[in-house]
Amino acid sequence: MAALPLPDSIKKQASSLKTVESFPVRRFFERFGEPLELELVAGEMGLQNRKIREKSINRPALALTGYYDYFAHKRLQLFGAGEMGYLRSLVRERQQKVLKEIVDHNIPCMVVSRGLRPTATMLDIAKEAKVPLFRTRMKSKDFSAEATILLEQELAPQTSLHGTLMDIKGVGTLLRGKSGVGKSECALALVERGHSLVADDFVSIRLVGDRELVGTGTELSRGYMECRGIGIINIGELFGVRSVRLEKRIDLVITFIDWHPGMHEERTGLERHYFEILDHKVSHVEIPVRPGRDMARLVEVAALVHALKRMGHDSAHAFNERLIAYMQEHSK
Fold first, then answer.
1. Out of 211, 260, 264, 267, which one is annotated catalytic?
2. What is the pLDDT of residues 140-192, one digit of tens each?
3. Exposed (0-12), middle (13-18) or buried (19+): which is 219, by Cβ within 10 Å?
4. Catalytic residue among 183, 195, 245, 284
5. Which fold does the domain 23-154 belong to in CATH?
């Protein structure tokens, strides 16, 4: 006797996708200039208008030789020791021609690594074309790795959802439901039990690395929660700094729904349900709300069950297999 196949059910988020298509060079410099050790040496006039349109970093070695097929002009252009050595080997007229061809492709900016000094021609071209030229003391490999991570975060697809995001023993749990259903009250009870609040009421979500969804709150409301009947409360001040997290990967979505007689309720846990955010499926559980139910305890258990499933322990499947084995044995 075989178990029935497990159907997948998927619910999609109602919020619209926001794709960040570009990142102004000025904002890049202001936000990441210090961690990337950037120093602006020329082309300040182009800071506002130039935009980075891809998250990867480009090394323009082939472009310096005049080969522009597949030239990634939308990316930040990084000049390392090899590129700078080649430039210095050229006469001034050749340097001008090569660099002008590169900036004419509407590149966002140029960065010289290892603390190397840009050539005089490079400074003149950057100033004339209004292309920001930076210098960093970081090695090319380290700069590429750090800058790619930072740009990936900024250029990641984004959306927002109404809900409350919690960190429950390492499981990022997004609580959803209509206004007034009890999401914040449940989150408050979870915080009292030692779990952490990430965002209340409004959750900003971005897709990082095309593989995981990361949720966070706004800077204005971070650490605050609206509790009906009491008002706005500061979670960090009431329960300590460990009760608040800046961001968390979203592993599980739990939707609170109003209970009514005769409604379908999950009884076995054999069916897999998903909630789709930014075209990525996240495990989804619906919990009916009715008087007397300890919603915080149910949410906590749902998060722990999800954690066990990720480690390969599925109680529902294990019991189903035991039941089938029992039925097979006693049918003989």
1. 267
2. 999 999 999 999 888 888 899 999 999 999 999 999 999 888 898 999 999 99
3. exposed
4. 183
5. 3.40.1390
